[in-house]
Amino acid sequence: MSQQVCRLSLTDAVNMANLATLAHTHPMSLGTIQSCFGHLYSTFGLEIEGRLVGFAILHQIFEDATLMDICVDPSEQGRGYGQMLLQAVITDAAQSKAETLFLEVRSSSLAARHMYAKYDFKESGIRKGYYKTESANEDAILMELAISL
């Protein structure tokens, strides 16, 4: 099975938005995804047999990098694809001289939190009621990784 992490371009935005709709209860809009291409962003995709099954968006300003989104098709989750994308993000941030990689994750997303902890992300705060849900709002857990230079 052919799988690869590659750079994505603006022409991939529609496929990314479709994937985000499958994977997230409140996905980024197509317009927001389209705005994540440019000199401050690195956008990665995971393709299997030429089909986009995941993506990650990294935003970096000077020494601070932020993982804006990481998304894997629900039918492909649990196979290590999120880790492949996260590794690409960490590598890119390090090569771009980032000192810290930040992210926020739903408090209920235990699998994601476990993955981030496995890569030495540390919890650094909480944003109360940050994420919308069907019935209420959910806290965001802030996490950060000190990148070794």
From TrEMBL:
Kindly give the InterPro entries that the UniProt entry links to this protein.
AcTrfase_RimI/Ard1, Acyl_CoA_acyltransferase, GNAT_dom, YpeA/RimI_acetyltransf
- Domain N-acetyltransferase positions: 3-148
Kindly report, in one word, the top-level EC class recorded for this enzyme: transferase
Q: Which GO terms describe its cellular component?
A: cytoplasm
Enumerate the subcellular locations listed in this protein's record, separating them with semicolons: Cytoplasm
Tell me what this protein is called.
Answer: [Ribosomal protein bS18]-alanine N-acetyltransferase
Give an example GO molecular function: protein-N-terminal-alanine acetyltransferase activity
Q: What is its main location?
A: cytoplasm
Q: What is its EC number?
A: 2.3.1.266
Q: Which UniProt keywords apply?
A: Acyltransferase, Cytoplasm, Transferase
Q: Which Pfam families match?
A: Acetyltransf_1 (PF00583)
State the similarity comment. Answer: Belongs to the acetyltransferase family. RimI subfamily.
Recorded catalytic activity of this chain's protein = N-terminal L-alanyl-[ribosomal protein bS18] + acetyl-CoA = N-terminal N(alpha)-acetyl-L-alanyl-[ribosomal protein bS18] + CoA + H(+)
Q: Is the keyword Acyltransferase in the record?
A: yes
Q: What does this protein do?
A: Acetylates the N-terminal alanine of ribosomal protein bS18.
